[in-house]
Amino acid sequence: MESLKQRVLKDGRILDGNILKVDSFINHQIDPRLAFDIGKEFYNRFKNAEIDKILTIETSGIAFAVCAGYHFNVPVVFAKKRAGLNMSSEVYQSKVYSYTKQTCYTISVSRQFLSPGENLLIIDDFLANGQAVSGMIDIAKQAGAKIAGAGIVIEKSFQPGGEILRSLGIRVESLVIIDSLKNNKIIIREALEK
Amino acid sequence: MESLKQRVLKDGRILDGNILKVDSFINHQIDPRLAFDIGKEFYNRFKNAEIDKILTIETSGIAFAVCAGYHFNVPVVFAKKRAGLNMSSEVYQSKVYSYTKQTCYTISVSRQFLSPGENLLIIDDFLANGQAVSGMIDIAKQAGAKIAGAGIVIEKSFQPGGEILRSLGIRVESLVIIDSLKNNKIIIREALEK
User: Fold this and answer.
1) Which of A34, A56, A80, A170 could form a disulfide with A165 if both were Cys (CB 3.0 to 4.6 A apart)?
2) Which domains are seen in chain B, by residue range?
3) What is the pLDDT along chain B (194 residues), one digit of tens a residue?
4) pTM for the whole thing?
5) Looking at the complex, does the CB of residue B112 fall below 8 Å from at least one CB of chain A?
6) Nearest CA to B51 among B152, B137, B142, B123?
7) Of A23, A66, A78, the CB nearest to B35
8) Residue A57 touches chain B, beta carbons under 8 Å
9) What ipTM does the predicted assembly reach?
10) Does the CB of B33 have a partner CB in chain A at under 8 Å?
11) Pairwise CA distance, residues A134 & A126, whole Å
C-alpha cells in the first residue's frame, strides 16, 4: 500500500534499535482518512473471503478494524485486555504475553459475540511476535469460528510473528512489511504487484 | 439521531437499575456503518465550529472519534489510560475517577499532539458523571488548546455529567439522551427538530 509506505517513511521514527514509533498517525494520533484507506485495502484483499465478522483487540486495532468493517459491512468485535468482573461462563479468554511490557495479560470476548462457523477476519495494527493475533486465534477456536486470515497494518519481518502465523496456515496480509530498522533506517519490502 | 435512538431501544439492555448495556453495537461489538453515521452527525452539528483536532479516550470513544475525524478530515488523538513509562515532561496527564470501578486512573496525551490555540472537539461514547470528559478538558487546558465542545453518543441525563459540563460553558451535543432507565424501561428524550 503505497500511501501507507510513504507515510511510514515520512513520519515513522526508530527508537532503541528495533522499535518503530508511528504514534503520530497509527496508535496515539490517528489519521482518519488514512485509516479509512487502510480499511478499504483490507476489504480489497479479503473481499472474496466471505467475511462474517471482524475481530480485533483494544486499543490500537480498533480504528482500522472499524474502517475495514465499514467496507465489509460486518460487525467488529474487539477483545478486551482487562479481565474485569466477567465470569468465564460469559467470556472466551486467552493469555497473551507482551514482550514490550514483559508481562502476561488476559484478553476476553463475550461469548454472545462469536458464533460457531462464523468466518472471522482478524485485524491488528502491528505484527511483531504474534502474541496478540495468536490470542485472538485461540479465542476464535474456542468459539468454533473459522479464521479467514489476518489483516495487519505494519508487520516487522525480523520478528517471528509473521512466520509463526503463516506456518499455522493463517493467511496474513500485511499492508507494509518492515524488513529492517538497522542503522536508524526504515527498510520496507517492495510490494509485489497484484 | 433517530437511527441511533431506535437501535438503543431495540438492542440496549438495562442492568442493575441504571446501567445501560449497549455492548452489542457500541462498546464491545461495534456496528461500523452506524459508527460512520454517528461520525457524520457529529460533523453536521460542529461543522461550523472550525475544528482542528478531535480528542477522545481509549477504548470505546475511538471508533466514533475516527468516524467523526473522517468527516472533518482532522487528526484524532486518544488519551491513554495507562501512565506507562512516559515522563511528565513528555505527556499531559489528568486524574479521572471511575464510578463504575470505584478507582482513580491517570489519562495521558503526548505533548507533541496538542498545541496551544488548537480548537478541539471532544468525543466520547457515554456521558454519565462526566469524569472522563472533564479529564480531557483538563488536558486540553494544560496544552493551551480551545474546546469547541463535546460530542457524546449517549448521555444519561439522570447522572450529573451533562449538567456539570454545560454549567462550565461547554457546548455538549449528545446524540441520544436517556432520561430514565426506571422500571426496566429505556426513556429517551425526544429530539428537538433543528
Assistant:
1) A170
2) 35-178 (3.40.50.2020)
3) 999 999 999 999 999 868 899 999 999 999 999 999 999 999 999 999 999 999 999 999 999 999 999 999 999 999 999 765 556 679 999 999 988 788 999 999 999 999 999 999 999 999 999 999 999 999 999 999 999 999 999 999 999 999 999 999 999 999 999 999 999 999 999 876 55
4) 0.96
5) yes
6) B123
7) A66
8) no
9) 0.95
10) yes
11) 13
